[in-house]
From TrEMBL:
Residues covered by region (Aspartate): 197-200
Aminoacyl-transfer RNA synthetases class-II family profile domain location: 143-555
The gene coding this protein: aspS
Keyword hit for Cytoplasm: yes
Protein name (Swiss-Prot/TrEMBL): Aspartate--tRNA(Asp/Asn) ligase
Oligomer and partners: Homodimer.
Binding site for ATP: R219, D220, E221, Q228, E482, G534, L535, D536, R537
Biological process (GO), any one: aspartyl-tRNA aminoacylation
Main location: cytoplasm
Organism for this UniProt entry: SAR86 cluster bacterium SAR86A
Gene Ontology cellular-component annotations: cytoplasm
EC class (word): ligase
Reactions catalysed: tRNA(Asx) + L-aspartate + ATP = L-aspartyl-tRNA(Asx) + AMP + diphosphate
Amino acid sequence: MKSHYCGEITSKNLKEDVTICGWIHRRRDHGGVIFLDVRDIKGICQAVVNPDQKDSFKLAESIRNEFVVQITGKVRKRLEGTINKTMHTGEIEIEVNIINILSKANTPVFPIDEYQEVNEDVRLKNRVLDLRRPEMNERIITRSKITSLIRNFLDDNDFNEIETPILTKATPEGARDYILPSRVQPGSFYALPQSPQLFKQLLMIGGLNKYYQIARCFRDEDLRADRQPEFTQIDIEASFLDEEEIMKVSEEMIKKVINKFCGDKLSKFAVLDWQDAMDRYGCDKPDLRIPLELIEISDLVKDEEFKVFSDPAKKKNSRVVALKVPKGNSMSRGQIDEYTKFVSKLGAKGLAYIKVNDVNDIENGIQSPILKFLNVETVTKILKKLDIQTDDLIFFGAGSESIVNLSMSSLIKKLGEDLSLYTEKWAPCWIINFPMFETNSDGDLTPLHHPFTLPKCSSKEIKNDPENATAYAYDVVLNGYEIGGGSLRIYDKSMQETIFEILKISKEEADKKFGFLLKALSSGCPPHGGIAFGLDRIVMLVTNTNNIRDVIAFPKTQSAACLLTDAPSTVEKAQLDELKIESTHKED
């Protein structure tokens, strides 16, 4: 149907007869001559319809934006003064001989021929139109190319692409499973995989040595801007490789992606201990482009009469931190109030601050509502510990560790964005030495990653002191986003049984849920480990958007709904009867 893509015709094709197919991006009528900008996956080309081509001209008069057309004509050079140097095809145009309208279109609900901010619900409801927008076209094609590069890289490193089941068994991996009923076994259910975790371990026990998969994963959890109920994971596992070797191959892969698609060379990946990251940045996903850190001052304020500081400074699992903002003194009271509202939404009770007008004049050169509650000696020590200079600003966080860490780490990222504090384009890092467990709201221990992570201690040691056990776990963070996480795996049956015991999983329950794994571990299991990368997040960063839905062809909303197809939806009663299921849901 076509001889060339629209976006690939250049001055090299002058005087050639060509046929193009695509959508009408824009139609313009200039003094009896009609210009048609025709768009396809490769770009846009201008076609010119003259009145002497009567049939084609008459047809061109009826054409509107987003009609699908086939155009045949001769390539010619644009007139002087009409060349568009911003377009790849900007030096040429097609003199039209024949036009065929392949498909007509209603007026688009939002413009595609020029960029406009469009409500996301409208975009998702009309996703086929949204995908036609050049920026969306480019993101989805870039995603495909990134996937291809990663496949080639892993193939070249002797990894084997192996598919694992989508219909599987429910296992606890930190989120809710999506459950599917079995028609042929009434009362029994499949679960969609949260990850291929156990199957890739079984592949290692099966002697496959190196595995990867571009895996579809499903988690029925509360959503955030960078989360989806179904997502794509670059899943990697290898036998007889240690922590450093897995991290090395992962680094090489990410460096290739960034270099190929962004033209940048990543610097050396920083390596941070988990506890160090939590102390300095309040989170295990720090954005190292932002030169701001939390400084612990609990020891300086624990004896103050100001209980907002002294109480948490004395309590276990609480902290008092200070955050220096260099040259932040110019910040208005209104801006500070906005940041106070911001941290309050994250659980903080407020946001104390000190403005430093003259660091050499403690009595008159600093201002803050909290100064009347603090000793001058304490203020002096704080200024010295933070190496404060004139015109700096200090923010304070005080309270439980969880709230202080969440609110202050979020404040660091917001300040970095609002004040353009970024010192570099890319800042990758590894976070290592994660705790093996964390305490949930019921006071019980739960795995920080998953229960198959190898601890850095013996079974006896972890039984005696599980709260302080660390794991062979590692996350890779890029510009404040966790793009991958992995660990070495337990390869000894008795250690796996010990972890289940600590997690209060009885032997009967362990056998019921994980009997197949325990049996496999008894058959001769090699040391192994792996990592999983979030493909969606990587593409989001590479294509310079902050919304993960921009890089997924047909995403869900934050309520896990597809506005295009109206999924999820009810089903006929006959289908439920066949599955031996009855819905107890009552419509509002």
